[in-house]
Amino acid sequence: MNIGFAVRSDFLTRMGGDSVQLLNTKKYLEDDFGVQCTIITSVDDVRNESLDVLHIFNMQPQTVDDGLKYAEMARKLNIKVALSPIYWRLDESFIIGAFSRRGLIDVSRKVVTPTSILLRSILRHLPTKKGFFSRDAYQKANKLLSYANIILPNSPEEKQILQETFPSVLNLDSKWAVVPNSVDKEKFYQQKNFSRDLPKKLEVISSLSGKYILCAARIEPLKNQLRILKALKKYPDLPVVFVGSDKGDAKYNSAVKKYAEKRGNTFFIGEVSQEEMAFVYSNAAVHVLPSFQESSGLASIESLFCGTPIVTSSAYFCPVKFYKFDEYGYQCNPYKIASITESISSALSQSKPKISDDYRSFFSYRNAALHTYEAYKEIV
């Protein structure tokens, strides 16, 4: 079976959840099932490959144009299309980012929700071709879904959101198969001691072992780092460690770093390799990801694999039930500072069961590849 993995051209230079999912799925499809996988970053390249399936990753607004072009080319060439949407409710996170870029940081939900409803209700009915809420962007996403022979959401919750947001997909002949977003269990396990000489930037991790609050995510409004610091304002003795790129929203980054400087006891490590991340997770007291949108929340799963308690946002913002974040972690309202504080306090003081071997197996990339392979067989 020959599979083309169609993805944005910067998937390696701007690593995200879609990049990680693609690369690991490719590895285990090739290793376990002998599937021939080719990564494709240009529509023209689809013509040059003899493919059974074109697997398109990511249908968020930034990538939907390319995704649709890939799907249209596949249809012309009579190639089956599999789509991993990697999708969640996007309206509020988009508004939060738009406000932030204009210098309005940490706007309340009383402002965000009405703004998103108003813009969606107005702009979706206008013929404009620009903007997140435009009718054009919505129609392109709807068409991309309609071209897919099989749709592969990362959770039943994601499937439900897609069907609510694009109700016409309920009438499609497309098949559906949930493929769990997963973790490489060969890399993510409890690792209190680093296996090699400790890199200089990780020395602070060793000195703070077992004491620090960790957030592993790109520093941006979506990931909500500023509210983490505000939630811990009255607890200056608790070290906070941020791991991730700061090359996103400049105004938000500036606000986070100014507040961190004022608070003190806050450390920015920058980007860290997966091999190093297991050490970082394992030595944290709690991992906190009060994000406004996660189709799974890879960092939360990775943290659980490393034996560290987690705080995630509530079920409106991420698939809490499918990934058992409610069973193994604590949830918060990401808009409310007091809620984040309370969830961190609970994670620090109350024990939750460690993840089971069945959890490790189910949310492994070997199992995700199995589900993906079975999905391909449904349409080939």
Quick tags:
15 helices, Rossmann fold, 12 strands, alpha/beta, six-stranded parallel β-sheet, 380 residues, 2 domains
Low-confidence stretches: none
Strand portion = 5-15%
Q: Into how many domains do the coordinates divide?
A: 2
Number of strands: 12
Helix content: 40-55%
Q: Roughly how many Å apart are the termini?
A: 9 Å
- CATH-defined fold name of the largest domain: Rossmann fold
- Structural class designation: alpha/beta
Structural notes for this entry:
It comes from Lacticaseibacillus paracasei (Lactobacillus paracasei). With 380 residues, the protein is an alpha/beta fold. The chain has 2 domains: 2-90 and 132-182 and 364-379, Rossmann fold (3-Layer(aba) Sandwich); 200-362, Rossmann fold, CATH 3.40.50.2000. The chain has helices spanning 17-33, 64-76, 91-101, 109-123, 135-147, 156-165, 203-207, 225-231, 250-263, 274-282, 298-305, 325-328, 337-349, 357-362, 365-379, and strands at 2-6, 36-40, 53-57, 80-84, 150-151, 175-176, 213-216, 240-243, 266-270, 286-289, 310-313, 330-332. Helix 3 (91-101) packs across helix 4 (109-123). The mean pLDDT is 91.
